[in-house]
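F.,

This is the one I mentioned.
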């Protein structure tokens, strides 16, 4: 599968790159936890993805790039999660998230065995996916309706989630929507709520972001990338304020990324694909441990 990936990127003229695993900056996203490390007496963080460093290369003029690497996320362990896992991440210049979805579809089709051939991918907006599989309007229904829908499916809604609209939507996606996606073919969900933009551009009420699903498993997360340094700083600072509110540790903002954005990020779209999860789909595995030589408990 990796050989197929390398052949694909070579054929599409993307440069394979390597970036540091250790960084002075860390991820600020409240949904991710960086793994800290000490190197040469200095505090560093293992990257949760190579995104920040790869964007520095894009700003330096590298053109289309891709990377295969190990990444680390603290507190993530379970059926589809291991604290250390493999990502394939890539960026294409001059395209948006819609064109990148087609790119993702071609790569996945190339990497999967012939027995997993599928028809053209399904594409649903976030609103359409939630309406189809959960029966609620993700943009217009009040939070109380979202909670009632979860409870009607006997899903426990923690107190910490009840007051957070996006948290309720995340729970709906993970329990009612995501498991039903990609059952007959690859599924893409795009145009997420603007409040869930992460590092994507925003267009009115929606973010130029997508996720890919197969066999009910989220495989990839992609953006039409935000290149506005002041806006990105504002989002990082909002993340830190939310971390403080939730009692989570503060994380150092990656100032080198912001400097690169200020220098000028070319118009591009980028995506991260979980390789281990794709292997699960290729083999019909039920747990990520089945496709890892040494899962976390045995590392």
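My design for it:
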């Amino acid at each position: 599968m990796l050989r197929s990936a390398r052949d694909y990127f070579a054929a599409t003229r993307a440069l394979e790159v390597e970036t540091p695993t250790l960084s002075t900056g860390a991820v600020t996203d409240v949904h991710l936890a960086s793994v800290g490390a000490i190197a040469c007496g200095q505090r560093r963080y293992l990257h949760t993805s190579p995104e920040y460093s790869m964007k520095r290369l894009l700003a330096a003029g590298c053109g289309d790039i891709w990377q295969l690497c190990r990444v680390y996320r603290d507190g993530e362990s379970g059926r589809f999660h291991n604290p250390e896992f493999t990502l394939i991440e890539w960026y294409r210049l001059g395209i948006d998230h819609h064109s990148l979805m087609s790119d993702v579809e071609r790569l996945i089709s190339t990497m999967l065995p012939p027995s997993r051939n599928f028809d053209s991918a399904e594409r649903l907006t976030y609103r359409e996916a939630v309406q189809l599989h959960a029966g609620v309007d993700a943009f217009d229904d009040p939070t109380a309706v979202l909670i009632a829908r979860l409870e009607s499916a006997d899903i426990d809604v923690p107190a910490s989630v009840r007051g957070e609209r996006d948290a309720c939507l995340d729970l709906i996606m993970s329990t009612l929507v995501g498991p039903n996606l990609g059952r007959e073919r690859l599924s893409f969900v795009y145009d997420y709520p603007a409040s869930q933009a992460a590092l994507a551009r925003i267009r009115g009420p929606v973010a130029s972001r997508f996720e890919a699903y197969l066999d009910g498993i989220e495989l990839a997360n992609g953006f039409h990338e935000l290149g506005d340094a002041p806006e990105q700083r504002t989002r990082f600072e909002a993340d830190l304020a939310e971390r403080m509110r939730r009692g989570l540790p503060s994380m150092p903002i990656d100032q080198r990324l912001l400097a690169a954005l200020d220098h000028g990020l070319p118009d591009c779209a980028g995506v991260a694909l979980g390789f281990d999860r794709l292997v699960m789909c290729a083999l019909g595995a039920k747990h990520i441990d089945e496709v890892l030589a040494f899962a976390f408990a045995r590392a």
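The chain has a mean pLDDT of 96.

Talk soon.
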